[in-house]
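Hey, quick one: can you model this chain's 3D structure?
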Amino acid sequence: MKVLMLNGSPHLQGNTYIALHEMEKIFQQEGVETEILQVGSKDIRGCIGCRKCGELGKCVFSDLVNETAQKFEACDGLVVGSPVYYASANATLVAFLTRLFYSTRFDKTMKVGASVVAARRGGLSATFDELNKFFTISGMPVASGQYWNSIHGQTPGEAEQDKEGLQGMRTLARNMVFLMRGIALAKEQFGLPEREPFERTNFVR
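Sure thing. Here's the predicted structure for all 205 residues.
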């Protein structure tokens, strides 16, 4: 099994990384292959709504988004980590996720998603909700931990002192492994749920 982990912080080994790395240790113990991809420090532009990805099969802008697409398709689970800025995720990460999810047309149903957020104090639950919406619009089950998946720290490395937050990351990783394995077994026995043709409804006639 494979889990792709996205570090949405501009700091390579800041508090967001600490949360992801705590999960990574559990994944490795469970024999799950992992990769942490640095996103937050990259130059990523936002989606311009050109819809060229529908013709090209990839985003019209050739950058980390297209480089990540195959890894996303191959993984069983996706972990997205972000620091909190004004009760919101890092804008670079949001631009990346928007283009990645929109431009990749493969079926994401039953890939397991998990989001983790790091902040000095507040804005964690708002950012957590924001990131989870990328999963739920794509038919991806959301893994839960023992609390909202968050960790506290201001200066780099300070999150190491948040014992409850670190425990939450370990619990989240174990739950995610269980969910991925359960889904894999269910797919073998029952296949994926039946999908109806999409009914698109606009509110302006």
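One thing worth noting: The domain at 2-190 is CATH 3.40.50.360 (Rossmann fold).
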